[in-house]
Amino acid sequence: MEPEVWSLALPVEGLPLKKLSVIGSGKDLEMRIVREGGPLLVLPLEGMRSTVSDDVVLEVGGVDDVSLELAYEAPELVLTRLRVHWDGQALPGVAEELDSLFGDAPKVRQGRCELTACVDVEFGLAAQNAVRAHPAPSTAGTDTGVGR
Fold it and tell me: What does pTM read for this prediction?
């Protein structure tokens, strides 16, 4: 069985973010994305892989007795890559949900938009000044997959 893959089309300069964090533990793990002028986007996670530039700082903090928050921070933080993987047979409709979440008019409930399925995520982050100096190479047509 081949996993389904969805990639967010991003401008060369990246998508400006206020914050990206991974929070929780075990089956309660989620990625939280806060965009400039947008609602909180929540992706429940099975796994994740990140690539960040040298100017992005990872802050790790305890949320409670069993949960951590991994918060990525940088001056002018930008998302440079986002790929989502899932079992298409077991989870139909995920691509459409992702299109809606990252579209111009996501469905906002109580200040947040949340994907209903657990997914694997690959993402890249940088500070905008680093993107201007060294644009990321295109990853179109490549599928590295994410281990479960």
Answer: 0.80
pLDDT at 135 over 80: no
Asked if residues 1 and 85 have their Cβ atoms less than 8 Å apart, the reply is: no
Q: How many helices (H) and strands (E) does the chain have?
A: 2, 9
Q: What residues contact residue 101 under an 8 Å CB cut-off, 6+ apart?
A: 41, 113, 115
Rg of the chain over all Cα atoms, to the nearest angstrom: 15
What is the spatial distance between Cα 128 and Cα 14, in angstroms, rounded to a whole number? Answer: 7
What is the Cα–Cα distance from 91 to 72, expressed in whole angstroms?
29
Beta strand 119-127 pairing with 77-86: antiparallel
What are the structure tokens assigned to 30, written together? 């989620």
